[in-house]
Amino acid sequence: MSLILIRFVFLAVLIFFIQSGREAPREKFWITFAEKKQSTPKSIFLSERTLRRRLKSLPPDRIVDTHDTPVSAEFVDQISDFGVDLIQQSRWLNAVSVLASSEELLRISRLPFVQSVEKVRKGEINRLVSVPHASFSLATPSYGASFKQNAMINTPAAHALGYVGTGVIIGMIDTGFNLGHVALRNVKVLRTKDFVDGDTIVTENTEGKSSSSHGTYVLSVIAGHAENSLIGTAYDASFLLARTEDDDGIGARIEEDNWIAALEWLEANGADVVNSSISFFDEFQNSVDRYDLKDLDGKTARTTIATDIAYSKGLLVVNSAGNMGQRGPRYLGTPSDGKHMIAVGAAAGDSMAIVESSYGPTADGRKKPDVVALGYNVRVVGNDSTGYDNFAGTSLSAPLVTGLAALVIQAHPRWPVERIYTSILQTAHLHKRPTDREGRGFPDAIKAINFDTPNNGTAEVRDLQSFPNPSNGMVTITFRSIVQGTYSLSIYNTLGQKVITLASSEPVAENQSIAKRWDLRDWRGREAGSGIYFYRIVLNGRPAVEKIMIVK
């Protein structure tokens, strides 16, 4: 259905309620603006880690774009004047979500800067099913009953090589997170944010918060670490925790605006990969304000669009495919229909997907899920401080793959997101003969880490460093080329603006060491101020980026 027709039907419904004297209930809607007002650089917050991650996938002049500028404060103020409750703001979608009545929405829709008014779609947590405790023939002294879920994606072999997620930042989107369990007490949490209540408290099972333990279970699959009981796939990673879902055990309030706001927050705060075990579909009831199966085309749903934007900024999103497999093909929850994210299905063992695991194809014919991981008898922390449980569902297969992605990122910190994504999909065991139910099958941590192509997108340099760093004077940048070719070296500020070029298409021999000096002046001879800068080497068309701290 076209946007014009949707808007026409929506306005007709509003007019009916108003003219009939019947008051429609206040509901949550997206108000999308037609343009963005100019904003100052000070209004854009991007962490240093975010800028470094983006530079692995983007040229410096594109690391900051219009997606990063906030929605117009003037537009927001005018919307607020109608008495609506402002809920979330999305920089990426240039939209706000509001709680409003029909009459308020009708007036808002007539504003010249409003492009569209649409319902905020709902979804559900991908529920877990309790599984009786079983005897695990694959149990080992260190992994205990969590060995099978790790072994099926070959993470123990990666762990043995020292790849345990160290230095990687994982963003988590879920109902909340309890860290009191013995297996979670050493989790490295960098920041937290609650997008339901607007605070920083993300703990489940506390007054006013979610009564489920869904987020805690999901987190424990990645971050848990208790010898002989539970070993997470990337237990030494650092975490950003976002609570976006309000699950009171009766009826969960799951809405896409909180999810999108959280994804934007995680990206801006430096996440390398994001895990989500939530689906948005609202039952696909063919209503004008709900997604239909034909909308699962990788370009329609708002959460799906958000994953595309995240990917364009160097951030990989991993999402559970959903638990609607019993309905038949195509019942994927968004954003798992996305073209630039990894949708994970649940397998019971070998390559057999569990019945509940959602599968495609998408409306445009792509196979989904992308990969699978164990989704039956998955070991997680229990609700007390020392016990453990076994559950089934795609909610637990997704974090297994998220942890695997973190191991690949640790092994190759300079790889752009495209290479991380490709390495996981193209080394899965069915990648040459994907199926509707399992996609490309089980990914393999070691194969993904060792993945190689003739053009891997990363500069073939070694020993890249700068000294002194931090510096208040002359800086020397050194590296060793492992191939023959030409290289360029430039300095950029945190807005992606070129400060100076130190080398342009200069020849370099195989195994040659290079040293270039920078006197902390820009191309006009002006002194560079204190702050963070990046030096970018492009060798034979492939980039490598590191930072310099200037302190004066």
Shape: globular
Count every helix, treating DSSP H or I runs of 4 or more residues as helices.
12
Gap between N and C termini, in Å? Answer: 58 Å
Low-confidence stretches: 1-6, 134-139
The profile of the biggest β sheet is:
8 strands, mixed
User: In total, how many domains does the architecture comprise?
Assistant: 3
CA radius of gyration is: 24 Å
Q: How many strands appear in the DSSP assignment? A: 26
Helix percentage: 10-25%
CATH superfamily of the largest domain: Peptidase S8/S53 domain
Q: And the CATH topology of the largest domain?
A: Rossmann fold
| Oligomeric state of the chains present here | single chain
Structural class: alpha+beta
CATH class of the largest domain: Alpha Beta
Average pLDDT, rounded to a whole number, is: 86
